[in-house]
Amino acid sequence: MAKPASRQQLVDYCLRRLGAPVLEINVDDDQVDDLVDDALQYFQERHFDGVERMYLKYVITQDDIDRGSAQVPGGTDLVTTDSISTEGNTYRWYESGNYIQIPDSVIGVEKIFKFDTSSISGGMFSIKYQLFLNDLYYFNSVELLQYAMVKSYLEDIDHLLTTDKQLRFNKRQNRLYLDIDWGAQAAGNVIVLDCYRILDPNTFTNVYNDSFLKLYLTALIKKQWGQNLSKFKGVKLPGGIEMNGGEILQQAESELSDIKARMASEYELPPYDFIG
Question: How far apart are CA 243 and CA 245, in angstroms?
């Protein structure tokens, strides 16, 4: 099938690209399964079409608050305790449990929408609300430039008084650390996470038909084929045919190098500039 819509159809497509069934592709099924997993992981972590931007909602529980508010005394209520003993001295390091567990499908976190506790922008008695309410009926006589400047000024004040909350995230931990005052939170509070989640190919089957994924997986299988045949270098087959797995391996490595270069230049999201 020219448009694979399942895992097996993708494998069959790649094997046909390599010459099957005319040629025997000397790669074991388990090896192919591993290569499909590797190709999907690379596609989901690097390709801009391998992820979707999501806004996930999380409800804070009392367990989260208790874990995030853990104190040092005694060390009994902390998540991790490390001790280093040297030259007769003991140094103890403590880590608070100020994190929430993130689904394994989330591979990147941009930010959390900040807790709106500002008197400038929160509630019907906020300055913004009152300013808009009082000026609404006089828009014909109010300069929009002045109104925009006032709103920008209020935003600056809001930014200084209620800064964005700091967070730390590592994909291999699946933990989102929130450096906030957990004691000021209440069970039932909701936070909204701005993140990137991988596309599940079993749900979105068009992933299997992605042109880059098909090309990359074909090159991976070709490389494995060359590695498998390399041990038979110089072996003569009936009819005088000689196996040359090394050449297949070399071709596959060159193709993979070109494919990864294209990934970096054409398919990856560009890195953000750091200023300061």
Answer: 6
Residue 15 lies in a domain: yes
Structure tokens at 182: 């957990």
CA 195 to chain centre: 7
- pLDDT tens digit sequence for 19-76: 999 988 999 999 999 999 999 999 999 999 999 999 999 999 998 988 888 765 554 4
- Enter the tokens of residue 135: 């000026």
- Tell me, letter by letter, the H, E, C secondary structure of 61-84: CHHHHHHHCCCCCCCCCCCEEEEE
Residue 263, token pair as written in the block: 């990934």
Burial class (CB in 10 A: 0-12, 13-18, 19+), 9: middle
102 within domain boundaries: yes
Same domain? For 182 and 67 the reply is yes
Domain span at residue 132 reads: 118-164
Phi, psi (degrees; rounded to nearest 5) at 80:
-135, 135
143 and 245 assigned to the same domain? no
Q: Mark whether 60 and 189 lie in a shared domain.
A: yes
SS3 state of residue 145: helix
Distances (CA, A) of 86 to 74, 75, 83, 89: 21, 20, 10, 5
Query: At 57, which helix (H) or strand (E)?
Result: strand 51-59
Cβ-based burial of 208 (10 A; exposed 0-12, middle 13-18, buried ≥19): buried
The C-alpha atoms of residue 158 and residue 152 are separated, in whole angstroms, by: 10
Q: Are residues 122 and 109 in the same domain?
A: no
